[in-house]
Fold Aspartyl aminopeptidase.
Amino acid sequence: MIREEKGGSVSYSHRLVRIEEPIMRVPTLAIHLDRGVNDGFKVNTQSHLLPVLATSVKVELNKEFAENGLAEKMTNKSRHHAFLLQMIANKLGCQPDQICDFELQACDTQPSIVAGAAKEFIFSGRLDNLCMSFCSLKALIDATSSDSDLENESGVRMVALFDHEEVGSNSAQGAGSPAMLDALSQITYSFTSDSKMLTKAIQRSFFVSADMAHALHPNYMDKNEESHQPKLHGGLVIKHNANQRYATNAVTSFIFREIAVKHNLPIQDFVVRNDMPCGSTIGPILASGVGIRTVDVGAPQLSMHSIREMCAVDDVKHSYEHFKAFFHEFSQLDTKISVDT
């Protein structure tokens, strides 16, 4: 949040900032000082994850910092380190004392890369869930780029991207908020003022909850149920869970699988081992909160939730093609389906 003064009046603006160069690091303890670390190290999130920004000696010797007198001006008045404030201000093109507040997150600064001996992998931070976000958005754009794409479309094609999925979705802009229902209401009432139409629209809608899936790990093959071992390059994974950690059912999985069959796209299935806990997605949150038929899917990946994840190049292509085919095919396929109630 930046304070700006123009013509004697004060206004405030919210600005996005990203510092590309690595300015902090969380160093690990040398194995010499903790010989048992490989026997079962557990991170203490309070003590072990404090990043190192700079040493106090170098901060004092830094010319720009000293010339601006920031140490004396801000150290006792700010909740944040003056050196960090100066770096943010430089990136925003403002003065440090114009910064009212901020929220920053540390992330890996290494760029994503296509790698592997056969250039078959993508190594990147935040593949979960930027990969599915990218594929779905590109598919929507390419599925609506010409007038002919929508000639026989009876519904509305859309993509919904939410914040805070990894921390529970309970925020003003998360999947647990009214954002989805509000968007559906506004879209529906732009076509009609009939108050009953929203309910009908929800009943006819279909939600593809696209979050990344766990690929079979070559070093931990016993972590997968024997008959459900999604593999890299194997296409999108349909995720099932009897306890509704995923919102897939027989009808919704059939619809998504049928589109794959028609377009000759690979498709896989995942069910977690019975003796292991199951992760979840925003699928059950939206399915229960809005009442839309839902299928949970995702591209297979390794190292999920690590600072640097990996997936297969082929699966990005498969995901994009599957989502694009879904946008084109769903409305007509849905008219052919009868569900016994």
